[in-house]
Amino acid sequence: MDTNFAVMEPAAASTGELVTALFEQSAKLVKTEVALARVELLADLKREIEVTEGLGTAALCTLSGLNLLLMAVVLALARVLPGWASALIVAAVVLAAGGLVRWLGRRKRVTRSLARTRRVVEKHVRWAMQ
């Protein structure tokens, strides 16, 4: 029994042959789609890794530049204050800014992950239990 529609005449095939051909072609289509999705996902993942490497390098450069700017502020303040006092003032300001950013960021964090999905699943479970 040939289940390839390119070779088999659908009008001459039995219902069983047509159903078999449908299932075989559906399975082949699903396998092909999964393989395509895998290739696409791997390509996307590789690209995202490259982007992440670039962002990491940019973050290091930014951090180094910020560190140098803070040292320049310390050196400028050292002209009017003792060096230890100017370093202490700059460190206190940086730590206060970091604490504020942490506090603001913590308020925005997700406390219950997948909240929408949980609601939908719970709704479906309640419906199935009825």
Task: Quickly describe the structure.
The protein is mostly helical. It is built from 3 helices and no strands. The two termini are 46 Å apart.
Task: Provide the fold topology.
Layout: H1 15-77, H2 83-108, H3 115-129
Helix pairs in contact: 1-2
- Strand content is under 5%
Integer count of domains? 2
Radius of gyration: 31 Å
Average pLDDT for all residues: 87
Q: How many angstroms separate the termini?
A: 46 Å
Low-confidence stretches: none
Shape: elongated
Let me know the largest β-sheet: none
Number of helices: 3
Q: Percentage of helical residues?
A: over 70%
> What class do helices, strands and sheet pairing give?
mainly alpha
Oligomer: single chain
How many strands?
A: 0
Order of helices and strands: HHH
What do you see in this structure?
The relative contact order is 0.04. The protein is built from 3 helices and no strands. The chain has helices at 15-77, 83-108, 115-129. The chain is mostly helical. The model has no long low-confidence stretch (mean pLDDT 87). The chain has 2 domains: 1-77; 82-130. Helix content is 80%, strand content 0%. Helix 1 (15-77) packs antiparallel against helix 2.
Defining traits:
130 residues; mainly alpha; 2 domains; 80% helix
